[in-house]
Structures are given as C-alpha cells and as structure tokens.
C-alpha cells in the first residue's frame, strides 16, 4: 500500500464482518488509515492486527452515543481527524409483520437508522474539516419493499430520505453517497429471529454470487473520485436478481 501515514482516515461502523470488514480491507489497501468500529471486539482487533500500520479497532455499539463520542475522540487523537464515515452497521430481522417481531422492529430502527444518524451527528465536525465523505449503506430495500421486509425497508427508505436532505445541506464540504446492494453473501440473514424466514433467507444468501469484496470495491471507487465529482447513489445487484 501507499504511504499509510498520509492517507485519508476512514471510520467504518460494523467493520467486524461482511461489507464493513471488506471495505476496511479495500480502503486500507488503497492507502487509507482505517478505524474499525463494532461490538465484537475480538474480530475488529484481529482485522486491525492483520492490516497492521494505519488500522485501529474501537469497540463501539452504534446505539450507544457515548461510545461513539469516545470513538470520535480516539480517532482524532490517533489519526488527527476523520475524512470518511461509512455508516454500515446494520441488522436485517425479516419476518411477517406481527407483534412477536416487535423487538426486532425497534432494534432495526435503533441500529440501521438511528445508529447511522447518531454516528454522523457525532463525526460531522471532523468530516467538515477539510473535505469529507459520508457513505451510507442502504439497500435495494431502500427503493423496493417486499413481503416480510417492511420495517427493514422502512429503515433503508429512511436512510435514503435522510441522505438526500443531508447531501443538499452539506455539499460541497461533505459528499454523501448512498450504496444500495442487492443480495450479498454475508452473515446478515443469520440473525433473523423468525425461524422459517431465516431458513429461507439463509438458502438465498448461501448461493449469493455477489461478495462483500464486490461492494467494497464499489465504495472505494466512489471515494476515490476527484472532489469536483459527487456520486450520489449506486444501486448494485447480482446479475441474476431482476
Ligand atoms: P453482517 O451481518 O456481516 O455485518 C453487519 C455488521 O453490523 C457487523 O459488523 C456487526 O458487528 C455490525 N452491527 C450490528 N449491530 C451493531 C450495533 N448495534 N453497533 C455496531 N455495529 C453493529 O452483514 P452485512 O455486511 O451484509 O451488512 C452490512 C450492511 O449492509 C447493513 O447495513 C445491511 O443492511 C447492508 N446490506 C446488506 C446486504 C446483503 O445482502 N448482505 C444487502 C443490502 C444492504 P457486531 O455484531 O460485531 O457489532
């Protein structure tokens, strides 16, 4: 990699697996310094160790504003500030709309939507200082809602609406890019609490051809465009998913 000491600094939430971990690897390989945030500290520490220079692991739950404030302070101290925030942490707790899933609904809104909003609010001063980038990981579910995905889609439609407003408010200081993947092979469906839905989803994800690395490359490409170009939105799907 290039000179890691000069590289832009990217903070990635949900960097312990899937798209977040792949994005950390991709950006680090492109010369970025990366701060890996997640709850599973062992995983982000192992990834930071693997990447070596210019990678730090910070244990943080995105539903805990105090933990995000502490993370922002640590990034400022160790890296001097944040240029890129990737709001990636998320859960997809699909299932039929019912009272039994009500804890899932609250969790998805708190992690996917409020978590991204809070992380952005906390890191915004650092992003504004010198030309920053905000990358919000939405989904195809931010544009299309299917049976059993209502509240998940609500969080991703929410991300899209909030991002559109924020982009108008923050450009040209901070670019806001929304990434909308279709099915990507990750751990995402394993946390579904509704048994039949989880089994169906895991079958679908088990044969997914699009990898977290595919998505990470797209994110890295978008971030590497010159400052006069802002990529607002990227929808990417498996070629077989109409
Ligand atoms: P993974 O389950 O592999 O990754 C989810 C990440 O989110 C983990 O690193 C997890 O870390 C983190 N996370 C979950 N809850 C919290 C929390 N409260 N605080 C901090 N981090 C949290 O799935 P993906 O990589 O697939 O998901 C990443 C994003 O991509 C999500 O926003 C998802 O909605 C989106 N997406 C995924 C698609 C797919 O098909 N896979 C398609 C479209 C969008 P930890 O548990 O260690 O905290």
From TrEMBL:
Record carries keyword Oxidoreductase: yes
Family: Belongs to the short-chain dehydrogenases/reductases (SDR) family.
Sorted UniProt keywords: Oxidoreductase
GO cellular component: membrane
Sample GO molecular function, one term: oxidoreductase activity, acting on the CH-OH group of donors, NAD or NADP as acceptor
Name of the featured protein: Short-chain dehydrogenase
Signal peptide residues on this chain, from the entry's feature table: none
UniProt keyword Oxidoreductase present: yes
The Ketoreductase domain, residue ranges: 8-187
